[in-house]
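Incident review: delayed structure delivery

Summary: a single-chain prediction request sat in the queue longer than the usual turnaround. Root cause was a stuck worker, restarted by the on-call engineer. No data loss occurred. The affected request and its eventual output are reproduced below so the record is complete for anyone auditing the incident later.

Affected input:
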Amino acid sequence: MKVKSLFSYSKMFSVAFAYVGILTGAGLATGSEMLQYFVSFGAPGVLGVVAITILHMLFAKWILALGSYYQTGHHMEALRAIAPNWLARLLDWSLVFACFVMSFVLVAGAGANLEQQFGIAPWLGSLICAVAILAISYMDFDKVMAALGMFTPIILVMLVIGLIHILLGPSIDWSAQFAYAATVPTTLDNIYVSVINYFALCLMSATSMLFVLGGSIIEIENAETGGLMGGFLTGVVSALCSFLMYAKIDTIAATEVPMLSFMNSIHPILGFVMAIVIYGMIFNSGISVCYSMAKRAANGNRRLFHIVIAVIVIVAYALSFVGFSQLVALMYPVLGYVGLLLFVTIIVAWWRHRRQVQSEKHLRQAIFQAVTQNDDSFAAKPHTSLRELMAKSTLSQPAIEYWQKLSQK
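Output delivered after worker restart:
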């Protein structure tokens, strides 16, 4: 059967679910991020969630498309192409450091999560997470991407169950709930600062893996559409989570894990499932930061990658016992400021490269047709025509071989 189109719905949803898995870490799944950055501002927080959804959609499309365009194996390959050398180096080291800090914080958080809900020793919960990260990282990238998106449908179902519970329950005085929400303490000055600060931190934690994800996608339109869908779904998760917390803000604001408390209030079984989902989201984020850091260090050497990822996971597990709370408290604000620099860099890069990306998208469509179709337009001089197209494209030879395999299915 001949392949007639680059566009693939399965690829789009795979990319979208992976994006949600990368971005929807433990902070969003637990509700703590939404509470601190948006819900605590009362009614204006709703506009903040809308703004974040738009930012997720735009930047997901841009980063994944740039990664696909340059076929990046790690973030530095993209940074070298879109930024001056000094800025690329600054962002490179900042992203590596952000991934390093988050690696042991996430592994430690996995242990703490299981201890809180099930009474499991924290060292064991962290060990399970570390072993799972290592096992998934040794698989091919399609399986890694599938693992990243594994919990996305589950958390969406859980949030929809919570939404139905609220809609079918007693009426809510939303004015009173918004007023109460505005009394919840926050360290941020206003909703505008909160939106930018939150998204800058999102970029610092996710951009490295997003460039790896984008580089794995040959079809630029799949990268763009999957990014838009992933950004939208991340916004949906954020909106549903915020809505549920607004509805019960008076009872869950003071709890350590707001969404877990909310689900437990509906039924203990839902609380049990939510605890597993939160653990899964921590695991997703752990894969993201460890895998992308190893890809950067290995720089395309597969054998070295296997060694580096093992070292990273072992170090993350060891450091999870120490905590480094002072280091995190010191460096997170700095990473937030660097995130603003990354924010601007990506905007400028997309504006400067958008025409090349779109031209390359059409060029790859032509190459795809040349390789996979018995098209009369290439019958006369197929090899010459394909060489001419390849000379203009950023595609590598393995991509052509990939399409040739598709055409044989």
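Verification: Residues 375-384 have pLDDT under 50 and may be disordered.
Action items: add queue-age alerting; document worker restart procedure.
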